[in-house]
From TrEMBL:
The keyword Transcription regulation applies. Pfam families: Cupin_2, HTH_18. Residues 184-281 form the HTH araC/xylS-type domain. It comes from Saccharibacillus brassicae. Transmembrane segments: none annotated. This is Helix-turn-helix domain-containing protein. Keywords: DNA-binding, Transcription, Transcription regulation. The keyword Acyltransferase does not apply.
Length: 281
């Protein structure tokens, strides 16, 4: 898992990534691209901006340009269809959707366990398009790029139809939008500087909030507390260095922002259930 302002590089062909992913875990991050996910098996926790939901088989979520989102499978098994693409494919190079156009990024709209006929219809329509996109990608038939592009237009159109803010629901307030922008900037800062001894007060100062308010807001948006988030970044880099280099563990610990090996080992065990040396032996 790694958190960042993600600038995707798609290579040649369509700027789209289509995949089936099992038991995904991904730290809070954001990007300009659009991201649609459909749970085909099991369940997982998904956070988008300050809203968190446990999605189950047959349910759907999507992220517009700039939305902060994360995936947490925990101990649950799941499989999702994940479609990520540049908004210029649907003629919205500046981003999608328009501000205030969406009542909720989740369908069903609440986690009460009861779906309305309207929500059932939405899920049938959206599931059909997501599954068709995945099948088209897998088959690689002639003119598949044109077909996939058309299906992406349909996907966005259906998302707007069934999640429109014209129906009952919430619009993002100016204050919430400002907090989202602040959090985007903070996540970028943490990704660049997590090796420093950053404190909760440092984060609150950068977000221009009190420590109490910042602590609650950060957890609502990212799904974890500030210190755990920082340590996930540090341990993620440490894992890459342990596997990809011959550097000593003490040097890796210091490079990743830990003051000593003892702290490094303790945090590694808390987050990964083993020791750093387990990755080498």
């Amino acid at each position: 898992m790694r958190a960042f302002h993600e600038n995707r590089i798609y290579g040649s062909g369509l700027p789209v990534q289509i995949s089936k992913v099992r038991s995904i875990d991904f730290l809070a991050h954001w990007h300009h691209d659009l991201e649609f996910m459909y749970v085909s098996e099991g369940s997982l926790q998904v956070g988008i901006n300050s809203e968190t939901r446990t999605l189950r088989a047959g349910e759907f979520a999507f992220c517009g340009s700039g939305d902060i989102h994360y995936y947490d499978s925990g101990k649950s098994e799941s499989e999702i269809i994940l479609v990520v693409f540049n908004p210029r494919l649907i003629g919205s190079a500046a981003g999608w959707p328009e501000e205030g156009a969406i009542r909720s990024p989740f369908i069903p709209y609440s986690d009460t366990g009861e779906r309305s006929p309207f929500e059932e219809e939405a899920l049938r329509e959206l599931a059909g398009v997501m599954e068709r996109i995945a099948a088209e990608e897998e088959a690689g038939r002639e003119q598949s790029d044109a077909v996939i592009t058309g299906l992406l237009h349909m996907l966005c159109g259906l998302a707007l139809r069934y999640a429109s803010a014209d129906g009952p629901g919430r619009r993002r307030s100016a204050r919430a939008a400002a907090h989202l922008k602040t959090t985007q900037e903070l996540l970028d800062y943490l990704d660049r500087h997590y090796t420093r001894p950053l404190t909760l007060q440092d984060g609150a100062d950068r977000a221009r909030m009190s420590v109490f308010h910042f602590s609650r807001f950060f957890k609502n948006v990212t799904g974890m507390n500030y210190n755990t988030y920082l340590n996930e970044l540090r341990i993620g880099r440490a894992e890459r260095l342990i596997v990809g280099t011959d550097a000593k563990l003490i040097d890796i610990a210091l490079e990743c922002g830990f003051g000593n090996v003892r702290t490094f080992n303790r945090v590694f065990r808390q987050l990964r259930g083993g020791t750093p040396s387990d990755l080498r032996y």
